[in-house]
Specification:
heterodimer; A: Rna Polymerase Sigma Factor, Chain: A; 10 helices; elongated; B: alpha+beta; Neuraminidase; 4 domains; 5-stranded antiparallel sheet; 17 helices; 40 strands
């Protein structure tokens, strides 16, 4: 690694933009599992670009990175098109069930802290979320990490709101049965 | 902690390793080469159990501090160090459920079935395999390719595999007698590392397993080189799985990039044989201008040939002594000696030059050229040119070594603007690009790792390029047919057919406009407003058709000519020697000179000059698309003169006088006094016409020799045809046809009505030309 100025600029951009870039990528990648690779490529390309040509002409690093991310999402996994094709029809969860799950999700549980501290179990729960429908991971990330409302998630993923809710709540219910959380 | 907080923390911690991404980015590590695995077996369950390391557990780890795996990966380690490092890693990973990439080296080469059996034995029958290595040193990667090996079987000798599994599963694999070593892989190892060569390991460090590697004799695969066919197949497979360096990518032909309508050969011919008539020698003026008249003849734009009207050849009358009138003139023929493989004027005085070093703009003042701006770009090709000139876009190689850079060349503002296309194309290859000036939409087809992507951006008048998105992609070849509004029309060649698709770049909606029953050749005009479809070479079926985006119709052209030339024109084209325009989904004949100007954009953007590459340099000549020619009614039929020798002689003499005035070369023609000039005028012009000429050129009959060009145009007598339509004993009238140039491949004549009067037995022109 070389240029300290370059690295400090990159580090600053990285910390400022990681959330927005990851949110964009998760929204647009074909599968959540692909997102890390795409994000890796986005920042690698960005670093290569500023290494070779500097960054004086980059007005908005975030906009620049999003532009790269747009191409990377397409380039690596052809996500935009596939996403529309995979709006799987599930038996929808009704409003009453949804409300009950929402209420339960807001209730403190000491057990959850214990689970989180058990790295192996926590990783298993994470892998369980990722193992099934590829959009479930996207929904979880955008809703919980990016604090996006479910309506926003639905719009971003080009899915029906009811589909998003169904996928989210069914997964939470499944994990409740499987892991007791 | 509630469940919302739990999931927020869980997803934040386990989704991405932000530190790793940041550091990998700085090291230039890309996930691009991460290979999509093929899952062999039935399900993708991951085994989570602890096993002991069996096969080579007896190895003495001779390095107390262990082995550090550098960022360069396995290739930087010796065989022995790889072994030690692998065992350290496996010890660390043995209880881990985290999945990683592992390189499995088999104890001896296995058949596909054997390899599958070994690899799936510890993973509930399923494991992602990203790459396979063969005994002949080749490898294949990619889900499809790997899948074929396992599905189709064959006599492959597999020496190793790159798999993605948990650390614990890897440790179990290490315990299999058929497996010599399991090593954690870095991303770069997919390209660089190979299964460990057991022979390179010092035997004192390793205890090889006692049990036979493959217990069933029938399954034992002899260790000999693959058959030629098998090797070729494996190699072929490996080659079709393209790397990311773009080397395997084929840059599209120049056709689309510079407007296929103008075949390269024709363009070359145009450039090699410009209209400047290089055979005519240039005769520099030998006589200085009249020293008493410093203003005279200082703005001559052309040079004259040897005078062809001798003083004693005027049928009884004679020119003043020493006068030789410039009956014929040679036009401008200026060699700039600027290296050029393409050159043409973009506006009236600024010309564009393309050569192997890049593109440049020069301004020409009639005598000399001045460099305005220049930009290095290799292998530049024309993508778009404005219908009325002034601007164009070229593409060329980017810093990534592939076609991916685009420059906007603006003669009006005298600058070259980088459109930063390479920020979108990056390491891919730009195979097709189009720009529609009406909507400002730029479309690019980028080929990357065997896939074609349609990328769209908006380019404003200042050259700001805003990326819109990548609304469509395909593994089949895509080419841009036309751009209209928000719609990009593309062709997709698949299964022996060509589909014409309409893609909305904002909504990403895709429609099939037309499907051709066979693969057709497609070209596009520079303005990106129409596409031309022709049957593939050698095909006897089909017609040449023009696609009209406005109506989404295919307009069939009659005739056998397959050459359609749009040039920079948006809606007009040359076909079969005639000019047509498209409107409302139909075509109609249109032969206006201004229409032809857009088609012949390389010759027409300046009314004064034309530039062309000739002999490797840019040469400047007079433009055929002068304001006079564009405003005149041009005749394209073959003209044969019918005038008598006397009338012709009078005409030539009048032309000589006209030229001396128009070019202000009276002095060099031997006319140094006002009276001499008046004598010459009166010799060939009737009294009325002479008076008009004197007045028009502001000749002071009583003063020193001073005159203006009077707006006259020089004419070469050799390039005229005089057709007399009526004649009697005292007068004659007819039409003087003046060769205006070649337009659309045809010679055109400008016509001037002329009349003659017989004056003292001599014919004189009664018209000012």
């Amino acid at each position: 690694m070389g240029n300290p100025d370059l690295d400090s600029y990159f580090d600053a951009v990285y910390s400022e933009t990681f959330n927005s870039v990851s949110r964009f990528v998760v929204s647009h990648a074909a599968r959540f599992q692909d997102s890390e690779d795409i994000i890796q490529n986005v920042y690698t390309r960005f670093y290569k670009r500023i290494s070779e040509k500097g960054y004086a002409d980059i007005e908005s690093a975030e906009a620049f990175l999003i532009n790269i991310a747009k191409f990377e999402c397409r380039s690596m996994f052809a996500g935009f098109k596939k996403r529309r094709d995979r709006d799987v029809i599930l038996s929808e969860i009704d409003e009453e069930q949804a409300a009950a799950i929402e209420a339960e999700m807001s209730r403190d549980q000491k057990l959850l802290e214990d689970v989180m501290s058990d790295k192996i179990l926590a990783k298993q729960i994470f892998d369980d979320i990722m193992s099934g429908d590829p959009t479930v991971g996207q929904i979880f990330y955008l809703h919980f990490v990016c604090d996006m409302k479910l309506e926003e998630v639905a719009n971003r993923l080009d899915l029906k709101l009811s589909t998003v809710k169904t996928k989210l709540y069914r997964t939470i219910e499944k994990q409740k049965k499987k892991y007791g959380i | 902690m509630n469940k919302k907080e739990f999931y927020k923390q869980l997803m934040s911690e386990y989704s991405f390793d932000a530190d790793k991404i940041r550091e990998n980015a700085k090291r230039g590590k890309s996930a691009r080469q991460k290979l999509q695995p093929i899952y062999i077996g039935m399900s993708a369950a991951a085994a989570v159990c602890v096993v002991t390391v069996g096969t080579i557990a007896a190895v003495n780890l001779s390095r107390p501090g262990g082995v550090s795996l550098t960022d360069s990966g396995l290739t930087q380690l010796s065989a022995s160090d790889r072994l030690s490092h692998a065992l350290e890693q496996l010890e660390a990973e043995r209880g881990s459920s985290e999945s990683k990439d592992f390189l499995v080296t088999f104890s001896s080469p296995l058949s596909p079935a054997q390899a599958q059996s070994v690899l799936t034995a510890y993973t509930d029958g399923s494991i992602p395999v990203k790459q396979l290595y063969f005994a002949d040193g080749t490898r294949i990667s990619g889900g499809d390719n790997v899948g074929k090996i396992f599905t189709n079987g064959g006599s492959y000798q597999i020496t190793g595999a790159a798999v993605y599994c948990s650390g614990s599963a890897a440790a179990q694999l290490q315990g299999d007698p058929a497996v010599f070593l399991v090593e954690a892989m870095e991303q770069s190892d997919f390209d660089n590392a190979a299964p460990l060569n057991i022979d390179e390991i010092a035997t004192m460090e390793v205890t090889l397993p006692d049990v036979p590697v493959v217990s069933e004799p029938d399954n034992t695969v002899p260790q000999q080189p693959q058959t030629g066919a098998a090797t070729a197949e494996a190699t072929s497979e490996a080659q079709t799985d393209e790397g990311s360096d773009g080397t395997a990518e084929v840059i599209s032909s120049t056709e689309e990039m510079d407007g296929t309508s103008e075949p390269a050969e024709t363009e070359q011919a145009t450039e090699e044989q410009p209209d400047e008539q290089p055979g005519i020698p240039v005769v520099e003026p030998t006589d200085p201008a009249d020293p008493a008249d410093p203003d005279s003849e200082q703005i001559a734009t052309g040079t004259t040939t040897e005078p062809e009207v001798p003083a004693d050849a005027t049928g009884g009358q004679t020119l003043p002594a020493g006068v030789t009138l410039p009956e014929n003139v040679s036009g401008l023929n200026y060699n700039t000696y600027i290296s050029a493989d393409s050159a043409f004027f973009l506006n009236n005085d600024t010309f564009f030059v393309k050569n192997s070093d890049g593109v440049s703009l020069y301004r020409f003042n009639g005598d000399t050229e001045t460099l305005i701006c220049s930009e290095y770009i290799s292998d530049a090709r024309l993508v778009w040119a404005a219908e009325k000139g002034g601007r164009l876009i070229v593409s060329g190689a980017s810093d990534y070594g592939t076609r991916g850079r685009m420059l906007l060349v603006d003669a009006e503002s005298g600058c070259i603007i980088d459109l930063h296309a390479e920020d979108t194309v990056m390491s891919g290859t730009l195979t097709s690009a189009a720009y529609n000036s009406d909507s400002g939409l730029m479309a690019m087809i980028v080929r990357e790792e065997g896939r074609y992507y349609l990328c769209a951006s908006s380019v404003d008048q200042s050259g700001n390029n805003d990326y819109i998105g990548t609304p469509f992609d395909s593994s089949d070849k895509l080419s841009i047919a036309a751009v209209r509004g928000d719609i990009v029309y593309i062709t997709e060649n698949s299964s022996g057919k060509t589909k014409l698709l309409a893609v909305n770049v904002f909504t990403e909606d895709v429609r099939t406009v037309h499907t051709f029953d066979s693969t057709v050749e497609m070209s596009r005009n520079l303005a990106s407003t129409h596409a031309v479809f022709t049957p593939e070479s050698g095909s006897a079926i089909g017609f040449t058709e023009i696609f009209d985006p406005e109506t989404e119709k295919l307009i069939q052209l009659n005739g056998s000519d397959s050459s359609v030339t749009f040039g920079a024109s948006r809606h007009s084209f040359l076909y079969g020697g005639n000019c047509y325009s498209i409107s409302g989904g139909s075509i109609s004949a249109n032969a206006g000179t201004s229409v032809l100007a857009a088609i012949e954009y390389r010759k027409s953007f300046s009314e004064s000059y034309a530039a062309a590459a000739s002999g490797g340099t840019a040469r400047i000549t007079d433009s055929a698309y002068t304001a006079l020619n564009k405003d005149s009614f041009l005749t394209y039929t073959t003209i044969s003169g019918n005038a008598s020798a006397e009338l012709r002689e009078a005409m030539n003499g009048a032309i000589g006088v006209n030229n001396a005035l128009a070019l202000k070369v009276c002095a060099t023609s031997g006319i140094t006094k006002t009276q001499t000039l008046l004598d010459c005028i009166n010799l060939y012009y009737s009294p009325a016409a002479a008076q008009k000429l004197i007045s028009r050129c502001e000749i002071d009959a009583l003063g020193a020799l001073r005159y203006s060009s009077g707006g006259l145009t020089a004419i070469s007598a050799d390039e005229t045809e005089l057709v007399i339509t009526s004649q009697n004993s005292t007068s004659a009238s007819g039409v003087l046809y003046v060769k205006a140039g070649t337009f659309g491949g045809k010679t055109a004549y400008r016509s001037v009505n002329v009349s003659f009067l017989l004056d003292n037995g001599t014919w004189k022109l009664d018209t000012v030309l």
